[in-house]
Amino acid sequence: MSSPEPTDANSRDILEKAAAISGIELRNPQLIRAGSNTIYRVGDIIGRIGKDGTTDAAVRELRISQWLNDSGIPAVRVADVTKPIAVVDGRPITWWQRIPAHHAATPAELASTLRQLHALAPPTTFVLPEHEPFAGLRRAITSTGRLDAEDRVWLLGHHDRLCNQYLELGRPRRKTVIHGDAWQGNVVVPFGGSPIIVDLDRVSLGRPEWDLIQVAADRTDFDRLSESDYLAFVDAYGDDVSMDFAFRLLADIQELRWTVFALSQSTVSASAAGEVRHRVACLQGEIVRPWRWNAL
């Protein structure tokens, strides 16, 4: 069993030990985010504390960063330090260059970046994992968060139905390098600069349609995106995934993932617990689209 996620206090201790290993002078570190990955800013360097037992994945992220940048696709860069990865108490700490002032990509900028990524030949010096959209979901539904018994049973059944339908899709028409969590905040644009891909932990080989689902669902299921912005996304990428035969299934899987994420937050957040019930009600058809889901 994995150890619990670090609290602010012990994540700071992990950061201090990692900085000593990596030859970094730790001055006034600022906590940016605490969660499955805990992020600190240390001057112009970002320290990212991963989950227990994820060292191999963290090493792969460093290699993905180097490979993407060498391939002409800007991605967050590894920091120029003595050791860009350190392992403390089983947790990998990776060090990255801080991206200067930036904004989230527009739909068109995101689409253009994804088009380039999907056209890229897979790396030859290391192996990307196969994309697994259901990875960890069943276990999380079974054992995580605040959920009444009836909703948990329904959610497990929903998971299994979607999983069976996904298997029935068979092999994809084409398999490409994908980001795996392609939303506008995971491609950032420095002011006066070019788009940069961030959060590389889910880069894998899979259906390119998966990377288009989040933006399409924002338009079709949540009405969070204007028609003109969505058309700009479609035009920049060159395809409209909402017209694909697998769209509804892939959107349902993505929305299940978003619901399970809320579930994972519900043990420490009363608002997340309420959001879980709302999202489950949406998935059950109790609330008609367009849905309104609060960010967590």
> How large a portion of the residues is in β-strands, by DSSP E?
5-15%
Q: What's the order of the H and E elements?
A: HEEEHEEEHHHEEEEHHHH
Q: Could you estimate the helical fraction of the residues in percent?
A: 40-55%
Question: How many DSSP E strands?
Answer: 10
- Overall 3D shape: globular
Q: Describe the oligomeric state of these chains in a short phrase.
A: single chain
| Average pLDDT rating | 94
**Euclidean distance between termini CA atoms:** 26 Å
Mind summarizing the main beta sheet?
5 strands, antiparallel
Show unreliable segments: 1-6
Number of helices: 9
Query: Radius of gyration, Cα only, in angstroms?
Result: 20 Å
* Class by alpha and beta content: alpha+beta
Description of the structure:
With 296 residues, this protein is α+β, with helices and mostly antiparallel strands. Helix content is 42%, strand content 14%. It contains 9 helices and 10 strands. Strands 1-2-3-5-4 form a 5-stranded antiparallel β-sheet, sandwiched between helices. The chain has a 3-stranded antiparallel β-sheet with strand order 6-8-9, with helices on one face. Strands 7-10 form a two-stranded antiparallel ribbon. α3 runs parallel beside α7 (227-237) and α6 (210-220) crosses α8 (247-265).
